[in-house]
Automatic annotation (TrEMBL):
InterPro entries named among the record's database cross-references: DUF34/NIF3 (IPR002678), DUF34/NIF3_bac (IPR017221), DUF34/NIF3_sf (IPR036069), N-reg_PII/ATP_PRibTrfase_C (IPR015867)
Protein name: GTP cyclohydrolase 1 type 2 homolog
The family this protein is said to belong to: Belongs to the GTP cyclohydrolase I type 2/NIF3 family.
Pfam family, one: DUF34_NIF3
PANTHER family to which the protein is assigned, alphabetical: GTP CYCLOHYDROLASE 1 TYPE 2 HOMOLOG (PTHR13799:SF14), NGG1 INTERACTING FACTOR 3 (PTHR13799)
GO molecular function: metal ion binding
Keywords linked to the UniProt accession: Metal-binding
Assembly with partners or alone: Homohexamer.
Keyword Metal-binding annotated: yes
Binding site residues for a divalent metal cation 2: 64
GO terms for cellular component: cytoplasm
Amino acid sequence: MQIKELVDYLEAIAPLDYQESYDNSGLIVGDKSQKITNVLVCLDSTEDVIDEAIEKNCNLIIAHHPIIFKGLKKLTGKNYIERTIIKAIKNDIAIYACHTNLDNITGGVSFKMAEKLQLKNVKILAPKKELLLKLTVFVPKENTGQLLDALYAAGAGEIGNYSNCSFRTIGKGTFKANDMANPVIGKRGVYEEVEESRIEVIFPKQLKRKVLKAMKAGHPYEEVSYFLHELENELQLVGSGAIGTLEEPVPVKEFMSYLKTNMALSVIKHTDSLQNDIQTVALCGGSGGFLLKNAIAAKADIFITSDYKYHEYFDADKKIVIADIGHYESEQFTKELIRDEILKKFANFATYLSQVKTNPINYFY
């Protein structure tokens, strides 16, 4: 099978539209039409990972972090990024990155952390806005069901845990076809009034092309009257971080030991303990300090993330415990997440987890 098939599948799960503006998720090196031999999943694409891919006969690397974040002006091998890209190209190895788009979905990176901690009732901590569109379209009343079925099949009308959501009103549409038209209803040059349904449905932005194509295919008119609005509403299933609860409250020290064991940590940097128990847990894989206010507003007892600076710890302000577990450590199980998603769909090639430790940070005990 071609790389394109796997890429399309991954992007259906974690659409590129969900990545942050600074990110560079997607196919970074390679040709989508290339046939896959085997796949290697890693956190970071490094020279050692390319060597591992060669050894395992993998011509596709799926990484969490993009090897390129900004444009390269030269490829002379002067740094690890250029050397990695050169080695991948020389050995015909494609590199694909699933980064903040995978962070921002329900079931993504932070949800994998929550799974390791066995949290319950897990949901997005900070849902994203302006990712939804509302389609308003007018159709003859008798064709309403036909058009709605086409829109629902394309993914429109899904709100949270509900599907087939729409709003309809009945009104009167008017038109007069000119001599070039081929009207479905009425005749050229004749003024017409038709009982029509005004249909409104919501859908994520990345489905725009698919939904509009379905609308035109399911609509009887030669010219379809419709318009789109961008909504400020939060998309509850997409956003940053996650929050969930433990089955029972746990004393802080006991929870810290539990956190260290379940996340395979060497050390935890944290602020003062404010209470005896931890039950509501907010977390974010990678650098999640920007979500502290969200965690406090959600009344979390502890916020688990990484990359905190000295003065930022003061922002806990005796309202929450901050636990910095390290960037690599917070995302180390992302490899399992990606592999498991691939195995749900594909079994015609081997999918390996990289054994290369790419964490640039070491600890002296």
